[in-house]
Amino acid sequence: MAKKDEAQMQASADGFNPVKFLEETKEELTKVVWPSRQQVVSESAAVILMVILSASLIYFLDRFFGWAATQVFG
């Protein structure tokens, strides 16, 4: 735990180094496993479908409770 704190103190004392930041960013991006085009399309379609279904459910519940309130309260 103490070594981690010392490393953070050293990093903050050195300041921000944009070149080192870009090198580390490039290194991390090489580790990313990017999805295939087919996977992106299918998962995007699933998300859009779920949003449409959820919005429709909320809409119909709102219309039903509005109708019920009108029936009860005139």
TrEMBL record:
Keyword terms, alphabetized: Cell inner membrane, Cell membrane, Membrane, Protein transport, Thylakoid, Translocation, Transmembrane, Transmembrane helix, Transport
Pfam families from the UniProt entry: SecE
PROSITE patterns: SECE_SEC61G (PS01067)
Any one of the GO BP annotations: protein secretion
InterPro entries documented for this protein: SecE_bac, SecE_sf, Translocase_SecE/Sec61-g
Main location: membrane
Topology of the protein relative to the lipid bilayer: Single-pass membrane protein
One GO cellular component term noted in the UniProt record for this chain: plasma membrane-derived thylakoid membrane
Cellular compartments annotated: Cell inner membrane; Cellular thylakoid membrane; Membrane
PANTHER family from the UniProt entry: PROTEIN TRANSLOCASE SUBUNIT SECE
Stated role: Essential subunit of the Sec protein translocation channel SecYEG. Clamps together the 2 halves of SecY. May contact the channel plug during translocation.
NCBIfam families: secE_bact
Family that this chain belongs to: Belongs to the SecE/SEC61-gamma family.
Subunit structure: Component of the Sec protein translocase complex. Heterotrimer consisting of SecY, SecE and SecG subunits. The heterotrimers can form oligomers, although 1 heterotrimer is thought to be able to translocate proteins. Interacts with the ribosome. Interacts with SecDF, and other proteins may be involved. Interacts with SecA.
Name this polypeptide is given: Protein translocase subunit SecE
